[in-house]
Amino acid sequence: QPSIRYHSASVTETADSITEWRSHRRLQSGRMSIQTFDYKQPRNQLPVGMPSLNEQGNVDAYEVYDVLDHYSHGTFKDGERLVRQRLEAIEVQGKTFTGNSTCRAMYPGHTFELTQHFDHDRGSAEDRSFLLITVKHEGSNNYLSDEAAGYTNEFVCIRHKIPYRHPITVPRPSIPGPLSAIVVGPEGEEVFTDELARIQVRFHWQRGDSLPQGTTWLRVA
User: Tens of pLDDT along 146-203?
Assistant: First the structure.
C-alpha cells in the first residue's frame, strides 16, 4: 500500500498529500440479538446475542434486537455468523476519518498508510493504515480562462484493521397481511381471557418466557 503524507496546503508540494484530516466518533449500540421462527419447532427460536467489541467508554450498551425471516438460521453457529456480520455493520460506523487531499489515485477500496501526522505517527503501523470508503473528486481546467487549473478531493475512510460491512438499512415495518401467533395463558386454563374478552398471544418476534412478558392482548372477532 502507498504512503501518503499529511502536509499543509499553504506550501508548494512536490508530491500529492493529505491537506486536511478529521476524526469522528459516533456512539453505537453495544449488543446485537436475533432470533428466527420454525413452525415445526415453535419453542426453539434459536436466539443468539453478542456484545460489540467497540470501546466506547462508560456508556449504556443499548441492544439492537432483530427477528429475521423464518428459517434464517438453522443452527446456533449460523446465527452467530449472522450476528457478527450485523455487528460489524454497526461497529464500522463507530469511528471514521474524513479529509481533503490532492491525491489523484484515491478511490473507494484503496488502502494507504498515513505518514507525518502529529497524532498518528505515535501509534502503531497497523493504526496508520486506512481503507477508503468514499472519494469525491473535484477538478478544474484553465482552458479559455486565466485561472489556474487544480484538483482536490474529499474522502471518508476507516482503519484498515476494522472489517468493513455496508450499513444495513431497515425500512419501516409493515403488515402485508394476516400474522400468526401462539395463544398463551396461565397454566391450567383452557381458554384464558381478560375482562374485555381478549385472548393473550405471543407473536413469533416477541421475547419472554413468563407471563405477561412478551405478550399482547387481542380482541377476538
Answer: 777 788 999 999 999 999 998 888 777 788 888 888 888 888 888 888 888 899 998 8
Nine-digit cell string for 157? 475512510
Strand partners, 112: 130
Please check whether residue 173 lies inside any domain of the structure: no
End residue of a domain, out of 71, 91, 111: 91
Tell me the CATH number at 153: 2.30.110.50
Q: What is the pTM of this model?
A: 0.71
Dihedral pair phi/psi, residue 115, rounded to 5°? -125, 160
The domain tally of the chain equals 3
